[in-house]
């Protein structure tokens, strides 16, 4: 017997390697290893190779641009069944979740300013009040946060995750813009809720899958009354949409309303600067007049 064989089987037993792997090692040259330590390292490699042959291979999204690898930066999602929803909507058979709160805002209706009545409108806003949030909003069936933490796939499938991340467990989806087309008209809206029906379908939202079957004819996009009115949509319709960056959002009514709207925020900031500048100039004039007396 060759002196290394006891070491072979001892190492195999210690590492949990099957006898068939040990037989492979036994048939090798009499002593290709310097000692038991060298053989143990080789045996580990044999075990890993054997496990790869029997363990299922799980497809995990790549950490480098999973959502971007399908062509253009944000490809169009064509012919998507689209339904209407609104802040304050009561539950129905086809929409069992009330919309007084959203996936990211427990006081959505209150923060919006009230019930976004789809049947009583003044232009693109409810007739009863001017909303404090952008009336051009939508929902898609994915939420990046669960139980106060980001979902494991979120950093890998959301194209802007790392740029938008401000703190652990805080969504990087709310407020993002999409363009929605119907015929020759295009509207722009901000992401404010999750649905219809599900919050886990990243393969559709950021990939190439189609929306899953559901009670609303496989709807994959919910839009607000303002979006409905701008595009002239029926209660259940078909649209085409894609994500857009903020610098791609053109002028339009979607830039005019809402404390959550970056365009309104910048306008408010500009006004405050102008007011402060005017007040400073007025004080300088008053002080100058006082010194001249």
- Total helices: the number is 9
Average pLDDT over all residues: 81
Structural class: alpha+beta
In the sheet with the most strands, the strands line up as: 1-9-4-8-7-10
Could you list the spans in which at least 5 consecutive residues all have pLDDT below 50? 1-5, 21-30, 47-59, 271-278
CATH-derived topology of the largest domain = Barwin-like endoglucanases
Q: Which architecture of the largest domain would the CATH scheme give at its second level?
A: Beta Barrel
| Biggest pleated-sheet summary | 6 strands, mixed, barrel
**H/E element order:** HHHEHEEEEEHHEEHEHEH
Amount of beta strand: 15-25%
Inertia-based shape? globular
**How helix-rich are the residues, as a percent range?**
25-40%
Calculate the terminal CA-CA distance, rounded to whole Å: 117 Å
- Report Rg: 30 Å
The fourth-level CATH homologous superfamily of the largest domain is RlpA-like domain
The count of domains is 2
How many strands in all? 10
CATH top-level class of the largest domain: Mainly Beta
What report would you give on this structure?
By secondary structure, the protein is of the alpha+beta class. The chain has 2 domains: 5-54, no CATH class; 69-267, RlpA-like domain (Barwin-like endoglucanases), CATH 2.40.40. 32% of the residues lie in helices and 16% in strands. It is built from 9 helices and 10 strands. The protein has helices spanning 5-15, 19-26, 36-54, 108-112, 154-157, 161-164, 202-205, 225-231, 262-292, and strands spanning 77-84, 121-122, 125-126, 137-140, 145-146, 149-150, 177-182, 185-194, 221-223, 236-244. Strands 1-9-4-8-7-10 form a 6-stranded mixed barrel. Strands 2-3 form a two-stranded antiparallel ribbon. Strand 7 (177-182) and strand 8 (185-194) form a beta hairpin. The longest helix has 31 residues, at 262-292. The termini are far apart. Mean pLDDT is 81; it is low at 1-5, 21-30, 47-59 and 271-278.
């Amino acid at each position: 017997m060759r002196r290394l064989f006891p070491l072979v089987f001892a190492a195999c037993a210690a590492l949990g390697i099957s006898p068939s792997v040990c037989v492979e090692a036994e048939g090798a040259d009499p002593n290709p290893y310097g000692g038991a330590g060298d053989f143990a390292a080789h045996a580990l490699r044999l075990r890993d190779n054997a496990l790869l042959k029997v363990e299922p291979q799980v497809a995990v999204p790549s950490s480098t641009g999973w959502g971007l690898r399908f062509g253009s930066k944000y490809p169009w999602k064509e012919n998507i069944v689209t339904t209407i929803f609104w802040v304050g909507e009561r539950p129905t058979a086809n929409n069992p979740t009330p919309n007084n709160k959203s996936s990211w805002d427990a006081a959505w209706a209150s923060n919006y300013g009230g019930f976004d009545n789809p049947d009583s409108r003044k232009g693109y806003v409810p007739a009863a009040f001017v909303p404090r949030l952008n009336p051009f909003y939508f929902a898609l069936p994915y939420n990046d946060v669960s139980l106060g933490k980001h979902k494991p796939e979120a950093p890998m499938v959301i194209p802007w995750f790392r740029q938008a991340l401000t703190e652990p467990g805080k969504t990087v989806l709310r407020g993002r813009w999409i363009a929605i087309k119907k015929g020759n008209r295009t509207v722009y809206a901000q992401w404010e809720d999750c649905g219809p029906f599900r919050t886990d379908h990243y393969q559709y939202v950021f990939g190439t899958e189609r929306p899953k079957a559901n009670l609303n004819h496989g709807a994959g996009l919910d839009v607000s009354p303002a979006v409905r009115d701008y595009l002239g949509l029926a209660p259940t319709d078909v649209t085409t949409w894609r994500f857009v960056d903020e610098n791609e959002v053109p002028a339009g009514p979607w830039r005019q309303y809402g404390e959550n709207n970056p365009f309104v925020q910048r306008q408010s900031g500009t006004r405050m600067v102008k007011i402060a500048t005017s007040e400073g100039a007025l004080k300088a004039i008053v002080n100058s007049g006082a010194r001249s007396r």
